[in-house]
Amino acid sequence: xxxxxxxxxxxxxxxxxxxxxxxxxxxxxxxxxxxxxxxxxxxxxxxxxxxxxxxxxxxxxxxxxxxxxxxxxxxxxxxxxxxxxxxxxxxxxxxxxxxxxxxxxxxxxxxxxxxxxxxxxxxxxxxxxxxxxxxxxxxxxxxxxxxxxxxxxxxxxxxxxxxxxxxxxxxxxxxxxxxxxxxxxxxxxxxxxxxxxxxxxxxxxxxxxxxxxxxxxxxxxxxxxxxxxxxxxxxxxxxxxxxxxxxxxxxxxxxxxxxxxxxxxxxxxxxxxxxxxxxxxxxxxxxxxxxxxxxxxxxxxxxxxxxxxxx
Length: 311
Ligand code: PMV
Known about the structure:
It is built from nine helices and ten strands. The strands form two sheets. Strands 1, 2, 3, 4, 5 and 6 form a six-stranded mixed beta sheet that branches. A four-stranded antiparallel beta sheet has the order 8-9-7-10. It is globular and about 60 Å long. The longest helix is centred in the C-terminal third of the chain and has 23 residues, at 204-226. 41% of the residues lie in helices and 23% in strands. It has two domains: 2-161, Ribosomal Protein S5, domain 2; 176-310, Alpha-Beta Plaits (2-Layer Sandwich), CATH 3.30.70. The protein has helices spanning 70-82, 105-120, 127-142, 148-155, 189-202, 204-226, 231-247, 253-264, 290-299; strands at residues 2-13, 24-40, 47-51, 57-60, 89-95, 159-161, 176-182, 269-273, 280-285, 304-310. Residues 11, 15-16, 18-19, 102-104, 142, 145-146, 148-149, 189, 193, 274-275, 279 line the site of (3R)-3-hydroxy-3-methyl-5-(phosphonooxy)pentanoic acid.
C-alpha cells in the first residue's frame, strides 16, 4: 500500500493573460492536498479508482478513445506511456481541495493518481513525463489550458511561467504572507477561459490591450517579489491586477466585495486568483494582521480561509 499526494496551487499574478502568452506567477499551496492510495487487488479484479468522498468506483479498461472521465483518462495515459495493461490495483482518492475553486484541483488529483499508478507499476514517472501527461488531462478539463497548474503542482515550486517555455523559479526577497479565501462558489475554468476568448475575438484591440497590461504588471510584480520591502507596491499591483481581471469580466460582485473587505481590514492588496467569477481570492498582509483579515473575510461570507507563506 502506497500513498502519493500533490498540493493545490495559487496564482499570484497573471491568470487568464497567461493563456495568451503573457507571464504568470504561481506557487504551490500545501495546506490543500490531493492524495491517492494504491492497494493491490485480488487477481483478475483489474484497475479501479474509488472516490473516498462519494464512494463511486470507476473501472479502468485499456482504451484508445479519450474518455469523458478525467480520472479514467489519467490512468489510461499512464498505462499507455508505460506500455502496461491495467494491473490488479485499487486507487483510492481523497482530496480537500475545493473543486472549481481556482486551486488547480483537477491537476493535483491527476498528479497524485499518476504518481501512485506509475509507482505501483514499478516505473515512477519523471517530473517532465508527468507534467506532459497531466497537461493532456488538463486539456480535457479546460479546453485550452496554459499549463501553469500542472507545472506548479508537479514541480512543487513557485514559478514564473510563460506558456510553451521552460518554467523559471524566482527568488523571494521578502517573506510574503497571504490570506487565501474560498468564496465557496464553484466555477468551471473552461467557461471563464471560453468567455474571455469570445471577448478577445470580438474586440482584439481592447481585450488584447488589457491582456498586455496584465503581462507588463506581472513582470513588475516579479521584480518586486525579488526586491525587499516592496509590500505596499506589490499590494497595489494586486489591486490593479484585480481591476484588469474585472475588465476581462471574470470577477463577481462577491469577489469584488471580499477584496474590498480585505483591503479595508488592512491588507496591502487583494485580488481574485485562478479562473474567477467565484473560486478563491488572495490578500497580501502583514503577518500580525492575518487573523483579523481572515476573520473579516469569513464574516463577509468567505466559506474558508487559510494562510500561505512564501519565503
Ligand atoms: O481556475 P484554475 O485554478 O484552473 O486556474 C486557471 C488559470 C487560467 O489562467 C484562468 C487558465 C489557464 O489555463 O492558465
